[in-house]
Amino acid sequence: MIEHVLTARRRDLGGFEVGRVLPAPALKMIGPFIFFDHMGPTQFPAKLPRNTDVRPHPHIGLATITYLFDGEIVHRDSVGYHQVIRPGEVNWMTAGRGITHSERFETMREHGGLLDGIQAWVALPHGDEEIEPSFVHFDAPELPEREVDDAHVRLIAGELLGLVSPVTVRSPLFYAHVTLKPGASLVVPAEYSERAAYIARGRVRVVNDEFPPGQMIVFEGAKTAAVTALEATTLMLLGGEPVGERHLWWNFVSSSAERMEQAKSDWRAGRFKLPVDDDHEFIPLPQEPPKPAPEPMS
Q: What is the four-CA torsion angle of 204, 209, 215, 218, rounded to 10 degrees?
């Protein structure tokens, strides 16, 4: 029933730590999901320093999803969007042939507060890797929700358990925020070949094993899986169908090694457009060879 158990590894992004789950040494992708960071939970102090912000940086070949449980992030990108991201909302940025964005804590800077959320990346399928960049935002009430097996399910993207998200996706996938009361169970269906559950809060039991926060349970394909909460629990369910092998370097994802090199060259030479109203600074390309590989910037 369980193929892998992945544990979040702490990574410093230069102002706060994240728990990095994907890519992992044992498993690079789950369906099209190639990157998964748990941001926090971190209690920011009042008068938060500006070096906590994630300065402008580039992406190609992927879509990023920022989803918060607590806190706020201010997003700006080179398409022209300026969006405050709040808990329960979906912010889906498609990089395609190339986009830049920043993530700043302007609305939390004065008074501080709790930041807790997930940043995930979805690799685009071969025919869509070079599409035009775009950004969409959905408020929390726009997402479909239902009670299933004593669990509350909010679907962020894709299709699952009879729900369909308004987010346009480019390959078969699902991504859901699930809350369970103590003792509640959810049966994860086997409708996708690759599926996983990340424990953001609480503790669960699968078969005879217990799992704490910060672990991702990767299920066997073609078999249903029952997850039971041992206390109040928050899960992120994710998965889908594979899109094929991908190269991942810094903030770039591509099926082509040559395209990755072009993206590096373009960023180094300043050929990426910077975010609108946020073009006064940027993160330089990391030096090569990257050993270990440079950390993605979310």
A: -100
For residue 101, which of 72, 138, 135, 50 has the smallest C-alpha distance?
135
Q: What is the DSSP letter of 257?
A: H
Q: 259: helix, coil or strand?
A: helix
Q: What SS3 class is residue 209?
A: strand
Tokens of 125: 């399928």
Name the residue with tokens 């809350």.
179
For the record, the structure tokens of 197 come out as 């559950």
Per-residue model confidence as pLDDT tens digits over 32-53: 999 999 998 999 999 999 989 9
Report the percentage of the chain scoring pLDDT > 90. Answer: 89
178 is written with which tokens?
Answer: 């699930």
DSSP string, 96-165: TT-EEEEEE-TTTTTT-EEEEEEEEEEEPPGGGTTSPPEEEEE-GGGS-EEEETTEEEEEEEEEETTEE-
